[in-house]
Amino acid sequence: MAVRILVRFKEKAEDARARQLERRISAYLGIKASVERIDSYTIDAKLSEEEAKLAATKLFADPIVQEALIGSADGECDYLIEIGLLPGVKDNVGDTSKKALEELLGRELEGGVYASTQYRLSGGVARSDAERIASELLGNPMIQHWKVLACGESSGLPVPKVRIGGEGEIHAIPLSADDSGLVSISKKRSLALSLSDMKVVRAYYMQESVRKKRRLRGLPDWPTDAELEVIAQTQSEHCKHRIFNSLIRYSEGGRTKLIDSLFNSYIRKSAEEIAKERDWIVSMFWDNAGVAKLNGSWNYAVKCETHNSPSALDPYGGAITGIVGVYRDPMGTGKGSKIIAGTYGFATASPFYTGGLSPRMPPRRLLDGVVEGVKDGGNKSGVPTAYGFAFFDEGWLGKPLVYVSAIGLMPSSINGEPSHEKHVDSGDRVVMVGGRVGKDGIHGATESSLEGGEWITAGHVQIGDPFTQKKVQDFILEARDLGLYNAITDMGAGGISSAAGETARMSNGCTLELSRVPLKYSGLKPWEIIVSESQERMLLAVPPKKMGELQRLAKKHDVEATDIGVFEDTGEFAANWKGKPVLALDMGFLHSGFPQLELEAEWKGGGEPEPELPPEDQGALLHEMLSRENIASKEWIQRQYDHEVQGGSVIKPFLGKENDGPSDAAVIRPLLGEDVGIAIGAGFTPKYSKIDAYYMAAASLDEAIRRVISVGASLGHIALNDNFCWPDSIYDSKGNPDGKQKLAQLVRANKALYDYTTYFKTPCISGKDSMFIDGNIRGSDGKEHKVSGLPALLFTAYAKVNDVRKCVSMDFKDEGDAVYIIGDTNNELGASEYYEARGHVGGNVPMLDKEKALQGYRTAEKAIQEGLLKSCHGCYRGGLAVALASCAIAGGIGAKLSLNGLPGNAKSDIAKLYSETGGRFIVTVAGKDTARFEKLATQAKRIGTVGGDLLVVDGIISEPIKGLKQSWQSTFRGFW
Amino acid sequence: MVRAAVLVGYGINCDYETSYALKLAGAEVEQVHISGLGEAGLERFEILAIPGGFSFGDDIAAGKMLANKLKAAAGSSIEQFVSDGKLAIGICNGFQALAKYALLPEMGEQKFTLTFNDSGRFEDRWVHLKAEGNSIWTRGISSLYLPVRHGEGKFVAPKEELRHIEREGLVALRYASAEGGKPSYPDNPNGSMNDIAGITDRSGRVLGLMPHPEASLYPTNHPRWTRGERDVLGIELFKNAVKFAEEELV
């Protein structure tokens, strides 16, 4: 019999969470309601009366402000919503509660503890209002169940205990079917294997040599379910990047070119060429993250990931799983690193969207969820979320982009061996560390290879558990330094299959015993165990003689470490269940037996004619531009993220006179006691893809570089991570008629990546792609509409700062400082924020001039190193006007400026103020230093002087700084 | 040499900078995992630091499970440590644990709590603080500027307890406005009663506070250092403790 313990706030104590919910109910749904929130814990075990009382008072309730009730809560209300997690969904609070309760009672509990919440609504709330609050604000049917009850009705939620059967079941799947049969097998199991893939699989199983071997092992001739799943996972777009490695026939203006792998032709080629001249690159491409040298004895590992599909289904769960998951990349790189910073980037539809399409998750709710997910994931991990952005476009109604990145720090050598290397000896034990395995996350890898829509099932919705992972991180660092393992990798997409399969390449094989894998609940089939993506797990290769010490250390850290098999030199990836064979696959076949995709790309050009627009009132326009959602302050997001834990914060994401101006980048001091730093900044300019993704890529790169240069990084030491998030680019005459153009955009973005990174000598040492940013959404016409995201290339720059004491911030400082612009301003309003505000795209996309940009980077860097700059800020979205206003707003001081003789070919006021030409910096210099600065920065043009309370530009703008700040901060004020 | 134990494990996460702060202040620092606290020999140390973090994920209530864990793992040695007149500090999550353990303002039943911020949100922002009372940790310090980073930092105590704390001069730190006056939100970032940010025990040796002194180690931690602004560094608290321990405890 389950026992329920309910915790409510005492009558006179204030529950701020309930007040916050009331505000949201009013803002989102226009319903006035008083809310009482009651936390409920269902203990699925026998407890004596005294035990229940002890639990209620000593564990669950805070005696100062709360009271605990056993059974049910009383009191008047209109309606009551009970909401809890569905069976099998990771219940972090329930899991920790169970452990704490067991400790308090001094005995083990036979069943679980499940957390749920009651919301008691009053103040004249109708049942229909309560239903809306439950379904439109609180509950997500992907992970939760709920009931709306009349006050006094007894609990409606069943105990969410998982009851499944199928333990140990292994099925063979005959592939003797015809083509349509093969396709249907792939579809039914959500394998995302194409017909030609399925034929390759069939051919493998029909080989006589394979059959002979299988019969000897006691395996069926045809693949087992586990084998098929492992093959699908290994070949998934997520793991194999089949589009980036495809053979592309690219045509443009009648000329055709064959590209054999975008990755090899552009990304890898660029990085390998640059590596000849950049000796700080330590490791790239093969491991979970790229590694760069920080100084003589420390390296840093970087990785930026996306977690898009899961965030579309459950924004909170998707984002928390994303950020906690990306930490495991540097953590599992080389011999393992300590996570020292994270970043975020959210690209969604506007939270103010009021169009005719009705996505399952309205954009504002989705944004709330992802913001909250990164908040809990980052804060609870003790990792500073140092920097990030949010950007909006309707294209992401179909699928949002959730970028998460992590930096890890590792000594350059550990026990005399280079820390970035790892190896596996035959005989090493396969050890799984961390979380337990459940059904959650099954098919994450294969489903991210599909576009959003009917195929997506709830199978891969999961909720990250930063607490468990923090313990794992602490454990790993100690185990690493004691030399207890030879290799480490993370278990992310693809679970054991991927982690063990990849690591087994170092020993040429492994055999797993799946019955040893610790489970959250019994009844999982072997194939589910091997591909489940349950979180917070790492995989180690441990020499047998170190197993005892490893286990003792695991106990100290309260971490589960389980021996699940052995690495061997057999040439096979094999697994058993209680000795019975589950799978045995040839390593060669698994990792290289599949055909290359062949795709068509055709570039037809992009953009529209330049519009003719009437003159503007420049003062009013500046206010309008500052308040636009892609310009306006997003401080409400960053303020919720701990960005200074670990003590090394140097340049904060918001700074200036009142700590609320937009910094170009963040800088951290990773080693307390040393002055070396890491600057982190991102470039994201997807709107230019409306014209040409070549220049979109160039602009993103330029933005990322200028952001870190602006705060004091060295150009010679910028490690980049590239993230391609692209709409479906595989041509299909019915389903994807413009697929060739989208693929051509992808080719062009890659070409730009190569052209510009090699010129600037800024290598991409890590990267990732997410290739199906599309979704099918129901419209007000009742039909499904396919919505595709803009082709987007995000560059994240992780750059070395030689001495953090020389860092510079972007806010204007003192009366009398001279204002300069570095770089040309051209007539390049194409796809600009201004054109978008007036409903146009135009054609003059900013075409980054690489020579001038490079000169600008060098000038800014040198001026900062010589201590000549009092402030430095790049011009990004919104152009010069927005950049100048930002510096003034942050500094709380105005400036008098003139744009006469502005370098570049922009002639009209609008073009001068709002053109988004790349490569530009706004800098200020103290009066005494102007001569030295002008000698160093020969291309810089003085445009005015800091001072006063107004931002004055020639005779056309004269606006009080306070009012401009108001406009910039007002847009998202209601989101706080 | 003064020896300081810094607790680690179970989701504590400010241990790196707290250890560094104590080291800079001149202490010999040992990081002690909570699971081994009972056997760690707490009597070897003069200073005990419970750093900030998200112990046990803040599940149920911040600091609650950590308090229970500490009690179960090493309750008697912790209480002995405090009774011996040694120095202890609980920062943020550590303060929440001290409150729920009931080591502050004195040992016994829980007298106050730290509950959800009025904003209903976790916030990271810098706050002005005024020091008062007889805490050894804040000797010679009149004001500080430090970050708070919490979602559950609102100081709440029943009327009579609050009166007691005030009357006995046990308030160590109060939120203040930039000019030093009565703060409103966000200067008082969480709605704490009487603007209380930190309290001490009667001896002045045990300090609990929500703001993070260990996040102010360098002038470059200040959010406006690039504007030439400087303030008393949070590290001064640790120096005070080490100095006192050197003189009185070693």
User: Can you list the strand order of the major beta sheet of chain A?
Assistant: 19-21-18-22-20-23-24
The CATH homologous superfamily of the domain at 279-416 and 634-725 and 762-806 in chain A: PurM-like, N-terminal domain
The greatest interface here is: A-B, 68 and 64 residues
Which percent band covers the strand fraction of chain B?
A: 15-25%
Structural class call of chain B reads alpha/beta
The number of E-state strands of chain A comes to 42
Calculate the terminal CA-CA distance of chain B, rounded to whole Å: 7 Å
Helix fraction of chain A by DSSP (H/I, runs of at least 4): 25-40%
Question: In whole angstroms, how far apart are the ends of chain A?
Answer: 42 Å
Helix content of chain B: 10-25%
Characterise this structure.
The complex is a heterodimer of chains A (976) and B (250). Chain A is an alpha+beta fold. Among the domains of chain A are: 3-150, Mth169, Chain: A, CATH 3.30.1280.10; 279-416 and 634-725 and 762-806, PurM-like, N-terminal domain (60s Ribosomal Protein L30, Chain: A, 2-Layer Sandwich), CATH 3.30.1330.10; 605-632 and 808-976, Phosphoribosyl-aminoimidazole Synthetase, Chain A, domain 2. Chain A contains 29 helices and 42 strands. In chain A, the strands form nine sheets. Chain A has a seven-stranded mixed sheet with strand order 19-21-18-22-20-23-24, sandwiched between helices. In chain A, strands 37-39-36-40-38-41-42 form a seven-stranded mixed sheet. In chain A, a hairpin with a 6-residue loop joins β9 and β10 (290-293). In chain A, α2 crosses α3 and α22 (693-711) runs parallel beside α25 (850-865). Chain A is globular and about 80 Å long. The model of chain A is unreliable at 448-458 (pLDDT under 50). Chain B has one domain: Class I glutamine amidotransferase (GATase) domain (Rossmann fold, 3-Layer(aba) Sandwich), CATH 3.40.50. Chain B has five helices and eleven strands; from the N terminus they run βαββαβαββββαβββα. Chain B has helices spanning 15-24, 64-83, 93-101, 159-167, 235-248; strands spanning 3-8, 28-33, 47-50, 87-91, 113-115, 123-131, 143-150, 154-156, 171-176, 196-200, 206-209. A nine-stranded mixed sheet of chain B has the order 2-1-3-4-11-10-9-6-7. In chain B, α1 links the parallel β1 and β2 (28-33). Chain B is globular and about 45 Å long. The mean pLDDT of chain B is 96.
